[in-house]
Amino acid sequence: MTLRQAALLSLCLVSTGLMTSLTTQAQERPYTIKEGNQLDADTYNGFKLYRNWCARCHGTYGQGLAGPDLTKSLNQINRDEFMSIVADGKSGSIGSMPAWRSNSAVMKGRDNIYSYLKARANGDIGSVKPELAK
Questions:
Q1: Could you give the residue ranges of the DSSP H alpha helices within 38-124?
Q2: N or C: which end of the chain has fewer CB within 10 A?
């Protein structure tokens, strides 16, 4: 494909809105899943971090306990908001989430936690224990 053809294709995709939807789709599904519960390595690492640091308040599957239902919350906030809440914490009507900024494991892995929770929020993983894809 020539440079001119690529530019023309990009212009067509942008004008039809397809480019935006492809970009949005990639952002909304930052994970891969096989056979219903087998996650890519990064998303599986997010599951392990979630299980160790978040599940005690947000539930085994993100369904909410003392903390809110993240399977709903992650469809109402964007990635940047999620990253900010994890780092800085948040006060809510019932309680508050602590800031995790001083926890290096959580801070280094919050992209992976986000991917795992987006898979839950999008309904791509049901109420099953995830596995690492083979």
A1: 41-53, 55-58, 70-73, 79-88, 104-121
A2: C
Lookup: tokens for 21: 């939807």
* Helix, strand, coil distribution of the chain in percent, nearest 5: 55, 5, 35
Q: Is the dihedral of CA 67, 94, 86, 30 positive or negative?
A: positive
| 3-state secondary structure (DSSP) of residue 74 | coil
Rounded (10°) CA dihedral 115, 117, 120, 123: -60
Q: How far is CA 102 from CA 47, 82, 106, 108, in A?
A: 20, 16, 9, 11
Tell me how far apart the alpha carbons of residues 107 and 57 are, in angstroms, rounded to a whole number.
18
Distance (Å, rounded) from C-alpha 24 to C-alpha 17? 11
**What is the rounded distance in angstroms from the CA atom of residue 5 to the CA atom of residue 21?**
21
DSSP 130: -
Banded model confidence at residue 22, pLDDT cuts 50, 70, 90: very low
Q: Using 50, 70 and 90 to split pLDDT, how confident is the model at 28?
A: low
